[in-house]
Amino acid sequence: MMRLKVTFVLFLSILPLALANLRVGFYRRSCPNAESIVRAAVRRRLTRDKSITAALLRMHFHDCFVRGCDASILIDSNRKSSSEKDAGPNLTVRGFELIDEAKKALEATCPSKVSCADIITLATRDAVFLSGGPFYFVPTGRRDGLVSDPDEVNLPGPTLTVSEAFQAFRAKNMSMDDMVTLLGAHTVGVAHCSFFLDRITRPDPTMDRGLAAKLRSICGAASGSNPDPTAFLDQATPFAVDNQFFKQIGLKRGVMKIDQELANDPLSRRIVSGFAANATLFRTRFAQAMVKMGNIQVLVGKAGEIRKNCRVFNPRRRI
After folding, report:
1. 296's torsion region: left (phi>0), alpha (psi -120 to 50) or beta?
2. CB–CB of 208/253 below 8 Å?
3. Catalytic residue among 45, 58, 60, 62
4. Residue 192's domain is classified under what CATH number?
5. How far apart, in whole angstroms, are the C-alpha atoms of residue 178 and residue 170?
6. Which annotated residues bind substrate (predicted)?
7. 83 marked among binding-site residues
8. Is 28 within 8 Å of 110 (Cβ atoms)?
9. What is the DSSP letter of 9?
10. How far apart are CA 286 and CA 182, in angstroms?
11. pTM of the model as a whole
């Protein structure tokens, strides 16, 4: 009986904290069709643009690693101030109009209920699933941030070593396993030639010769209308979320330096080999890592706001 009382008291003591956190089905009562509305928008876009999955994965990552998953990356700059969109790493982030489309539909159905931060998270999950990746339940209840500062954008770049890149992930309480798993999102990504040109303009023993020749041909076709061409990061299945990326880098077919180093560095090599050999393992860990990343520094409860328009902060109320 005493054990039951202690357990009950403990449950009561943590209940307020549990209610303040994210949870699956957060909009079940306030906006029952929220997730299906977002999924429909993603499905429509995928029918004409298979690359949107990579775009959403990148947007989600760039948002969560700056001030947490608070949709600060969606804010437009104006004459008075610049936003995160103006920061160098974010100039090629795209897919904003898809978030706008989903938000417009949600506002028509249940005004001021669903945050832009949750839309990014849900849309990314749905794009991953519709591109052959795992389906995973997404805890929701995020609130939108009130700050978007380009000076705060400091993201790990493609020329870092594994240990250097891991410093950024560790700062967000992510493990080495999480980092390698999340970089597996490059299975559907592309990179501009400027990000890997140094690897193909001189002999690089860590790159397959055939791939190097192919990339030189792509980058050599640069023109005035396309001064910085792109190449797929996964040479096998560039529009499918699968474990082919890990198989490719195991064959020295990593395009960017950080990708190839994942297969070469003792810190990450074992994880890469495991994913290359076991597609199910990658799918499971990718789902787990995406949920974990989506929980970084989230705003919940009464913090932040629920934006009416994802591109601008709500007007401040006068007291």
Report:
1. beta
2. yes
3. 62
4. 1.10.420.10
5. 10
6. 156
7. no
8. no
9. H
10. 7
11. 0.91
User: Cα(56)–Cα(127) distance, rounded to whole angstroms?
Assistant: 8
Between 116-130 and 52-64, two packed helices, what is the crossing angle to 10 degrees? 140
Sequential DSSP letters for 140-172: B--BB-S---GGG-----TTS-HHHHHHHHHTT
Tokens coding 6: 């202690």
Is 63 annotated among the ligand-binding residues?
yes
pLDDT tens for the chain, residues 1 to 319:
443 333 333 333 333 333 348 999 999 999 999 999 999 999 999 999 999 999 999 999 999 999 999 999 999 999 989 999 999 999 999 999 999 999 999 999 999 999 999 999 999 999 999 999 999 999 999 999 999 999 999 999 999 999 999 999 999 999 999 999 999 999 999 999 999 999 999 889 999 999 999 999 999 998 999 999 999 999 999 999 999 999 999 999 999 999 999 999 999 999 999 999 999 999 999 999 999 999 999 999 999 999 999 999 999 865 5
Q: Is 192 a catalytic residue?
A: no
First to last CA, the chain: 52
Read off the CATH number of the domain in which 124 is found: 1.10.520.10
Between CA 94 and CA 115, with CA 42 as vertex, the angle to 5 degrees is 75
How many residues in total does the chain contain? 319
DSSP E strand stretches across the chain: 190-192, 230-232
- On whether 60 is known to bind a ligand per the annotation, the reply is no
Query: Is residue 248 within 8 Å of residue 254, measured between CB atoms?
Result: yes
Decide if 197 is inside a domain: yes
Neighbours of 7 (CB within 10 A): 10
Q: Kindly report the backbone phi and psi dihedral angles of residue 23, in degrees, each rounded to the nearest multiple of 5, phi listed first.
A: -155, 150
Sign of torsion, CA 28 32 37 40?
Answer: positive
Identity of the amino acid at 10: L
Distance between CA 152 and CA 68 in Å, rounded? 11
* 167 and 240 both lie in a single domain: yes
275: containing domain: 162-294
Q: Does 156 count as an annotated binding residue?
A: yes
